[in-house]
Amino acid sequence: MSIQTQNQESETSKISEIFKKYSAYFQASPLVIVLFIFAVVPVAIILMYSVFIFDGFVTRPGFTFTSYIDFFSEWSSLLNLWHTARIFIITWVITLVLGFIISYFLVFDLISFRVKVFFFLLTVVPFWTSGVVRMTSWIPFLGSKGILNSFLINIGIVDEPVQFFLFSEFAVIVSYIHMFTLFMVAPLFNVMARINPNLIEAAKDQGASGFQILRFIIIPMSKPGIIIGTIFIVALVATDFTAIRILSGAQSGSLANSVSVAFFNGFYPIAAAQSVILLALLLLFVGGLMRVVDIRKQM
C-alpha cells in the first residue's frame, strides 16, 4: 500500500514539475491560438491572393507579381498613396498640437484629480455615437447652406458659399481631426500625468522659464505618448475609407479606399496586393518610430 502511495506521489510530483516547467507556455497558448487564427491566417490568405493570376474577369491560383508591378507602374495608385500620406501628415500635425494642448491643460492647469478625470471623460463623449454619425454630422455644418457658410456670409467675409468646405479633402481632414484627436490625447495625458511635479518646481527654482520647462522637461518626457499617439493616428487614417467616400466627393482618394473598391468589384489579387503594400508601409513606419523611442523602457 505504501509502495502504491509512493508511486502516486512520484507521478504527481512529476506532473507538477512538468506544469511548472511549461506553465508559461500553457498560459500563453490561448493568446497564441487567437493571434494565429485572427492575425496570422488572414494575412497569409491575403499574401496568397496577392500573387494569384487575375485576367480582368477571373481569379485563378498561380504565382505572379503582376498586381504589385501594376501598383507601382500606375499613376493612380501612386497618387492614392500620396493622398494617404498627405492626409495623414496634416491630420497628425493638427491632432498632435490639439492633443498636447488639451493634455497639458488637463495635467498642469487643473489641480483637482476629479476635475482632471471629469474633463478627460468629456473628450470621450463623442465616442458614444457611431463613427459614421460623427462623420456625417459635418455635412450640415460644412455644406453650401450649412452653419459655417451662413456665418461667413452673414458677417461679410464671403459673398457666396465656399464650395471647398464640403466634399473635398478639407472635409475629410476636419472629420479625422474630430474623430481621432482623442487617440492623441489619451497617451499624452497618461504620460504627462506621470511627470514628477518636483522636477518642474526644481526647474522654476533654478530660474527656468515656462518655455524652457516645456522644451527640456515636458516635451522630452512626453515622447512615448507622442509616439503611441502617432501610431494610433497613422493606423486609423491609413486604414479608413468611409470618410473618403462620404466627405471627399471623389475629390480625393486613399490607398484604403482603393483596396475597398477593388475588393467589392471582385479584383481580389489587386486588392490583396495593395493591402500587403499598405501593411508593409505601416509596419516600416511603426518600426521606425519604435527605434526613436523605446516605449517599453519609457512607459
Task: Write a concise synopsis of the structure shown.
The chain has one domain (74-298): Orthogonal Bundle (MetI-like fold), CATH 1.10.3720.
List keywords for this structure.
about 300 residues; 17 helices; mainly alpha; MetI-like fold
Number of helical runs? 17
> Regions with pLDDT < 50 over 5+ consecutive residues?
none
* 3D shape: flat
Strand segment count = 2
Average of pLDDT:
85
How much β-strand is present in the residues? under 5%
Strand arrangement, largest sheet? Answer: 1-2
At the first level of CATH, the class is Mainly Alpha
Overall domain count = 1
Work out the helicity level.
over 70%
Task: Tell me about the largest β-sheet.
Answer: 2 strands, antiparallel
SSE layout:
Layout: H1 2-21, H2 23-50, E1 53-54, E2 59-60, H3 66-73, H4 75-109, H5 113-122, H6 131-136, H7 139-142, H8 147-154, H9 169-180, H10 182-192, H11 197-205, H12 210-221, H13 223-239, H14 242-247, H15 255-264, H16 268-292, H17 295-298
Antiparallel strand pairs: 1-2
Helix pairs in contact: 2-16, 4-9, 4-10, 4-13, 10-13, 13-16, 15-16
Can you give a write-up of this model?
The structure is a single chain. It is flat, with a radius of gyration of 26 Å. It has 299 residues and is an all-alpha fold. Helix 4 (75-109) runs antiparallel to helix 13 (223-239), helix 10 (182-192) runs antiparallel to helix 13 and helix 13 (223-239) packs antiparallel against helix 16 (268-292). It is 75% helix and 1% strand. The protein contains 17 helices and two strands. The chain has a two-stranded antiparallel ribbon. A hairpin with a 4-residue loop joins strand 1 and strand 2.
